[in-house]
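Batch manifest, entry 17 of 40.
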Amino acid sequence: MENVLRPLIVIGGSVLLTLVIGWATDLLLRKADARHSETPLWGLLRRGRIPYQLVLCAAMLRGSYDEAQLLREHRVGIGQTLTLVLIGSAAWLVIRIAAAVVETSYSRYARMHRDPARVRRVRTQVTLIMRVVAAIVGVVAVAAMLLTFPAMRAAGASLLASAGILGIVAGVAAQSTLSNMFAGLQIAFGDMVRIGDTVVVDGEWGTVEEITLTFLTVRTWDERRITMPVSYFTSKPFENWSRGGAQMTGIVYWHLDHSAPMDAMREKLRDILRECPAWDGRACDLTVTDSTPNTMQVRALVTAKDADDIWKVRVTVREQMIRWLTDHHPYALPRVNTADSAQPPSRNGARPSASPDGAPRRIHEPPRQSR
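Output type: structure tokens
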């Protein structure tokens, strides 16, 4: 009877005590979150309740397993498994705590600073810092797990002796990966590109959606995702429309007849912009920039607060101006000049006959009837 009750008491007591402590800790965090609503720290710490309970349960079972006297022939293997679970859950808990602290710091910074560019820069740095912290904690946890095996501890000296050679070989083999990692750190702290920036890369216009240590994702206007190595942004030129301010100037072109009413078009442009909510009111202008024997090129300059609004302003101005010219000044639209076509000679070599009144007849006109 004792062989049955002892394991149940030890294992059941450890699990029950873990649930009670976890519930009590979560209750305290909820109260702290309700009391201090100005900071999200306590609410973010609640995300770590699962690894917290795993740490408690694994530690209690690891310390009291010998008292349970259960499966003694597998005591070493079970103890080793509990140790691995304890190390892994502890690393998970450290990552969750670090993420809560970093996210709280970022939220506080975002509330204090209203500059979107600076907020995006800090967000990019925070994201990459968390990835670096997670990678370091993961490597340390895996190393600690490996060192729990006696064979690994015995091989430690030989591994350290060959670490230099292995490091050189690994550096050569992972040259591109390492260059991308250093490029990711350079992007994070060099303020070259940030999450949320509007960029043009390889002729594609889009918004930076994700930055990691090795790759960067750009979301295009048609919701495609372009993934490229971060080393691209440190080795090749690209357009960053968000750097130095998000305000932009857009251009709209028309090809019109030389008789187009320029003064009336300027007035209409101002009327269109006044009714367009995307226009920021900074500037507008309409001028003739070029001319050909048949048409002239008219350019309109408009402004907006960011890349999305400048696109809306441009398409609105282009569409409404063309519609207004079509309805009120159709003569201003480009026209194609036509001339009488020359007729080929007939089979007997004579020229085509003219109309009875002596005027030449066009090829697409029917013969004129004489009166």
